[in-house]
Design a protein that fits this description.
The protein is of the alpha+beta class. The chain contains three helices and two strands. The longest helix is centred in the middle third of the chain and has 16 residues, at about 35-50.
Amino acid sequence: MFRKETPRLDIVLYTSGVDPHWKDELGRLYLTDEGLYQRDLFVLQTVIKRGIPVATVIGGGYFRDIDQLVRRHSIIHRAASKT
């Protein structure tokens, strides 16, 4: 992900979209909840271990069931609590 010649970053802005979920009407990556969690955890751990501040925002998600949408958007917070 990062190469030795990568310039020093001041901050990483990460959009933690949930449209890649397999139940999303517009998504096509077919990730599960666990897949979204592992993706978010990987991104956060990779950036944080390099000492780079990271800010996340939620995005995407085209679920008819609002409870499912909220649950999927909360995955980034669960991943952040593990870093």
